[in-house]
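Lab notebook, design round three. We kept the backbone fixed and only want residue identities now. Task for the bench partner: fill in a sequence for the structure below.
Input structure tokens:
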């Protein structure tokens, strides 16, 4: 069973669903999954796995007008 279905994700399940209902999208970096040896099945089903998180942020900035703000 994936981690999110074994109770570990229950703490966040409602919060994730509330954000999805507000059109928030979750993206997960495949490079990070591979380097940390995390199985893709352990990613929440609401998330989209992208090849590279850094490249995805750059794409969102260039193609879709997003801005990355670092606190």
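Proposed sequence:
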């Amino acid at each position: 069973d994936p981690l999110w279905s074994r109770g570990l994700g229950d703490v966040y399940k409602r919060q994730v669903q509330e954000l999805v209902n507000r059109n928030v999208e979750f993206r997960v970096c495949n490079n990070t999954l591979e380097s940390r040896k995390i199985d893709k099945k352990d990613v929440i089903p609401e998330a989209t796995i992208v090849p590279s998180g850094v490249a995805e942020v750059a794409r969102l900035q260039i193609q879709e007008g997003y801005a990355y703000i670092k606190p």
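Keep this in mind before ordering anything: The CA atoms of residues 57 and 63 lie 10 Å apart.
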